[in-house]
Amino acid sequence: MRKHTIIKNAKIVNEGQTIEGDILIENDIIMEIASSISVKSSEITVIDAEGNYVLPGMIDDQVHFREPGLTHKANIETESKAALAGGITSFIEMPNTKPQTTTVEKLEEKFEIASKSSHANYSFMFGGTNDNLDEILKVDSKTVAGLKLFLGSSTGNMLVDDPAVIEKIFSSTDMVISVHCEDEATIKKNLEAHIAEYGDDIPMEKHPIIRSEEACYISSSKAIELAKKTGARLHVFHLSTGKETSLFSNKIPLKDKKITAEVCVHHLWFSDEDYARKGSHIKWNPAVKTSKDREQLLKALLDDRIDVIATDHAPHTLEEKDNPYTSAPSGGPLVQHALLALLEMHHQGKISIEKIVEKACHNPAILFDVEKRGYIREGYYADLVIVDLKSPWTVNKSNILYKCGWSPFEGNTFKSRITHTFVNGELAYNNFKVLDVKAGRRLTFNR
């Protein structure tokens, strides 16, 4: 039986413009977009957007949902629910779980977990190591988001630090290679100097000095140089410095780029001035750096040297975070509040809604060749988010959905709220409530 939903009286944000109109959804597909739509059917649901904005669901290209093996911090079910509350309808999850996703067998086990528990659409990165090239070559690029290499800051054996291996991987795969770039030798030297001065209780504001601009730039520039040499398709995750933005170009369209970049919401929002107040709760790798870096990252995002906005959602428990510097892990939860933070930046006049949609919805779809998602187009899957830009609310323990139970945005009042999230045509989130619907599907790719 055909199921119809009409979203009426919407400001539809898509492909650089905002138009007023209605959206007709039939089962899981957007069937029609028009100034006014009416359908005669006994099976029809009408949702009045009341003049609010309708965006494509965000595609978050970098999350850590901690399953399997680290589920005391988070799991795919809890974090995918939080993602829906944050307007993220599709996610790409990282391989540094326990066990790590460095064999095809372990990759398929994660897909099996997600097929039973994810409320949002999902895919996974395959993880590279110094010794798993044979497994990398078995991966079908049509069914997996891409390859993740830790060229710095890794857990377990996932640090890929053999230059010959890195070059071999770059030369051997046609998958998008996403990299974490921080130079380990530089960080080690800086950390040793700070331990000598402070012991384990290093002031948290020293984090961007230890994991410095130099450490980021050395690693990013080496990766880009190698990508140019080998012709690899390189995507540099979570830029954190203004200096690195000079390594990227806006001369050609994203679809033609071989080297791309991402920035995360926390590097656009926080600066080193916030460590005094937030402490380890804003300790990420790469580190949040200066307000000047933050300004330069936003500038590069707006002028298209940076292509994608993501979260790097990486929860830890408060018990783990509330430790001295050397034992407090890096990372924090973000999927529920990322879009709201971006909309707050819109309210501040820093970025247009159309540009947010381009960087958080359209561009991840282009970059990873995601099939029929990331846009509000007829024939595309109905992954949609309704946002009310004039309905303030405050982040507190009672409305946080992360399993870890905290947020770096606690106490922050956002001017906007997400009222509805649709996944594959199903209403999955409605005004602070995740509905009992598991509509998420495995992402497919046009490759």
From TrEMBL:
GO terms for biological process: purine nucleobase catabolic process. SUPFAM superfamilies: Composite domain of metallo-dependent hydrolases, Metallo-dependent hydrolases. Its cofactor is Zn(2+). It is an enzyme of class 3 (hydrolase). Pfam families: Amidohydro_1. Residues 53-427 form the Amidohydrolase-related domain. The keyword Ligase does not apply. It comes from the Bacteria. Keywords: Hydrolase, Metal-binding. GO terms for cellular component: cytoplasm. Its EC number is 3.5.2.3. NCBIfam families: PRK09236.1, pyrC_multi. PANTHER family: ALLANTOINASE. This is Dihydroorotase. It comes from Winogradskyella ouciana.
